[in-house]
Amino acid sequence: MSYSKLTRFSEIGKKIIAVGRNYSEHAAELGNAVPSKPIIFLKPTSSYVKSGQAIKIPNGCSSLHHEVELGIVIDQKGCDIPESKAMDYVGGYVLALDMTARDFQDEAKKKGHPWSLAKGFDTSCPIGNFISKESLADPGNAHLWLKVNDTMKQDGNTKDMIFSIPYLISYISGYFTLEPGDLILTGTPSGVGPVTQGDVIKAGLDGISELEFKVEQK
Ligand SMILES: O=C([O-])CC(=O)C(=O)O
Ligand SMILES: [Mg+2]
User: Fold this and answer.
1) Is the pTM of this model over 0.90?
2) Domain boundaries, the chain
3) Which biological process, per GO, is one annotated for this protein (predicted)?
């Protein structure tokens, strides 16, 4: 199955595997250590939202944070994929936000609880349009940025990832069978911060993809 014609987000829909703290400046800004192996968590597919819909602040959340990330769309089934073959499993990319209820996450971290609510609530995975593999020649050197109400907040480059895209695909596929339509979120660069009702988030990847979402109270 080829995802080169994939344009509807409902077709990206198997599972969302996210990587945490994959940029050292972001790990540092939240007072976390740089990980020695990838930190992996899952977001449900019910968290997807597409341009035109709103990001909804979840019930009881007082600190909703933006995190802009490069998403990798998988288009072949595979497990235990060697790093040298990893890019063969990539069908394309999406610009994505890993919206995070930071207050829920802080509480979960303190108590040793899972991050599922903090990271997986409805609308926590806004995505832009599908980006073909050909149009992003070097995903390991791509500029990604995010503005809140036209003020630049995140301005990073995927070259600063701690674990590379091929390494992540290989590592993740050692535990989860990757399937066509799976999305891997590769972590966020520094500059994360809160958004509130009425804010407008804009984000972009190189000159290739842009997205815009309004924030609303649920
Ligand atoms: O919540 C966090 O800091 C972990 C994470 O998703 C990221 O680094 O992208
Ligand atoms: Mg993230």
Assistant:
1) yes
2) 3-217
3) carboxylic acid metabolic process
